[in-house]
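Exam revision sheet. Question 4 asks you to relate a sequence to its structure. Input first:
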Amino acid sequence: MSGYSYDRNSYLRRLRRIEGQVRGLQRMIGEDRYCIDILTQVAATTRALQSVALGLLEEHLSHCVTQAVNQGGDTHPVRSAKPPTLSRASCVPEPGDAGRPGSPRVIVPILIQEGQ
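Answer key, structure tokens:
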């Protein structure tokens, strides 16, 4: 069973909505719409995808990884306290590329402990 199994319908709804946003972007390009309007929609679509990705990652950490560690017979079982919450993702330059314009970026999840 996947960690996201309980929220599968929610993820599918969100992905269908994102799919509609992408179709809208295609339509905007086809209609030769103003660049900034298209970029605004690209940013919204990107944020929506990042939100899905963070949700899946949080589910993976709290379910799949926890279960794997506990089943692996580790002498230090994962504590049952609520895991850190993924608050957002940050795009940071690849190591060694920080000063170059257009350098590749990686998405890094940012974890916060409850109560911070």
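Marking note for examiners. The two ends are 32 Å apart (CA to CA).
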